[in-house]
Each structure stands twice: as structure tokens, then as C-alpha cells.
Design goal:
By secondary structure, the protein is α+β, with helices and mostly antiparallel strands. It is 36% helix and 24% strand. Strands 1, 2, 3, 4, 7 and 8 form a six-stranded antiparallel β-sheet that branches. Strands 10, 11, 12, 13, 16 and 17 form a six-stranded mixed β-sheet that branches. Helix 7 packs parallel to helix 8, helix 8 crosses helix 9 and helix 10 packs antiparallel against helix 11.
Length: 409
Amino acid sequence: MTDAAIDYAAVFQGLPGMVALLGPDLVYADANEEFLRMSGRTREQVVGRFLFDVFPDNPNDPAATGMRNLETSLRRVLSTGERDTMALQRYDVESTACPGKWEQRYWSPVNAPVLDLDGKVVLLVHRVEEVTELIRARGSSGSGRTRVLEAELYTRARELQEVNERLRSAHAREREVALALQEAMLPTRRQSASHQIAVRYRPAVGSLNVCGDWYDVVDLVGGNRIGVSVGDVVGHGLAAAGVMGQLRSALSATSRVAAGPAEALNVLGRYANVVDGAESATVVTTFVDFDRHTITYSSAGHPPPALVHPDGRVEFLDRATDPPLDARPDPMARPQAETTFSRGSTLVLYTDGLIERRREDIDTGLARLADSLVRHRNTDPEALADAVLLELLPHGGATDDTALIIVRL
């Protein structure tokens, strides 16, 4: 049977468990038959209504935390795009047969995202398993020891949830420190005052998958020349920020004395061999000569820079690509290529977070980038950078950090 022949709506309704779909606004989009039956609600009472209007906390229990815990979990899934398994919850439900009467209920919830092609959360899958009868059966089955064990189980579940909350808080603090370190190490201003250059760094939203991307601009010795580079370190957080800082500083210094970008990357590759965490890091560097109107470039496994010519033609600089840093044991020089440009052209370097999407060929992302660059090519670099980020990054935020640098030639 092919996918086209499967009635997924019927599959959803027939799932052997309580499952509901929520929009990002926490309004019910759908609920299967088991969910409606076990919750004692009709489809009209659920679908199209706000979650906590349908299932509020028990107003007679000032210690009730079910609604707060559930909302925290769902908001977390929205922001991270990752599944969240909750601890055992007591969440009382008002009886539909006797309004005002609240039934003590226990649930084991799991919340998961449904993502679109851009990685944006478009739906939330809310699956719950009711364990009320199990708790009651164990509590009334006779021995006081059983009741003690059940109480301990519930207490441990709540403690686990509290530990998870503390871990998430620590995760958030580490993310803030890593971003602060990233900001301190990356140049905030263009280093060449005589050229129009725009730089951007956008961290991943709601995750620690940040601080591996970097950019740099250096004035080169001899003539009206600058070196422009971007790179991406495998990993994330404080460790990636530290490695990123070492590689950026090393390339910045090497570029000032190297004969060309290939030599600069060759030296950087040797340095990466002794830097823990630099394995498989990617980088591309370009030497721009404004007097000769040439761009010399070399890439270590990085997406190709884009050169936008004044007539709207986009040239991807992909004729000098080699494996990532620390990926080749031999000391052979890396390849190098050169191209020419006309006055008014635009050079664009970026990291893969700008173009890559799940389940999508990279050529599709490159075509999307080229289209955006062409349509906005007559704007200044600052406006161009903002337009490209707005059009290419998912509206809900990217799942990977992104560096972008634009030079008007």
C-alpha cells in the first residue's frame, strides 16, 4: 500500500491511546476518539477551543500545578522543536455529568512537535496515558507497603520533573554565557573603514546549538586588499565558542602574512590538528584585491561564497573546495582559485544555517539564496543582509546558528 492510499485521518482516529493535536496557540486542532472518550468530552467541546478553557486547574485545589506544568512543557516543545516527556501528573478534570464536581485523575503525558520543511513547529502532538485506575488499585489493594510505594513513585516523578527544570535552567545559563563569549570574540565592527561591509550573527532559537559559527575581516599587507572569512565549528555551546575563537584568531593572523588564501588554510589546518574540538571544522577565506578587481579564494569543506555581479548574475565560488580542517593527513597545499569582479558587485559569505533545511537538497537552498540576493542587489549591504536573513531563515527561528557577511566591491 502506498502513502497516497493510506487514510491518515482514519489512522489518527483509530490510534490506541489518547492523542490530540494542538496549534502553536494551544488551540485544539483535532482529537482522536480515545481522547474524547477518556476525557469525557465531545468533539464540539474540544476542537477549536483553547486547551486550558477545556481543561483548567481544579479551583478547589490551591496547590494544583497540572495546568502550569503542561503549559511549560508545550511552550518548551514550541521553542526547541524537541519532544518533551513529562513526569507523572495529577490533573483533576471537571465532571460533565455533574458540573462543579472535580474528579481526581493522574496522567502520563508526552508532547512532540510536527515540523514543516523549514524546521518550524506547526502542530503539537499531545499524547496522554491515564494511570488513575492503576494508582487507585495499588492504593486500595491491601497493604500499607503498597500505598507507601505508590506515594514514593509519585514523589520521585515530581522530583524528576524538578531536576529536569533545574537542568534546563542550567542549559539556559550556559547558552547565555556562550553567546556572551561569542559576542566578545567576534568583531562587532567592520575592520576596514574604507569599504561597505555588513556582518550578522544569528544564534539558533531555543537551543544550545550556538557559537560554532564565526566571521572575520582583516586588512591585508600590500595594496588595497582585505581578507574575508567565515567558518563553522562542529559542536555547540562554550566548547564550540572556545574552539571558534582559537581558529578565528589563528586565521586572522595567518592571513596577514600568507601569500594567498590556500596557504592561510594550509597553516590553519596544521594548527587545527592540535586544537581539541577542531575536527571537521569548515572555513572559507577570500582575499579581495580592489586595485586588480580580483577575488582569490580557498575553501575547506564550506558552502561556496556568492558573487553577485551588477547585471544580476550570481557566481558561486566553488572551484577551490577541499575537505574540512584536520580531515586530511597529508601536508599538501589546498587548492586556490581566482575570479574577477566589476565595481558594484557584491561578495557574500555565510554558514550552512542560512541555506540548509531538513530533507532538502543543498542546491535548493543555494538557489533560494541566489534569488534573494538578485532581488535585493541594489540595496546597501546593511539592508541586503537584513532582507536575506528575513527571507531565508525560518520565521519561528533557525535550528542552527548562522553567520553572514556582505561586502560591496
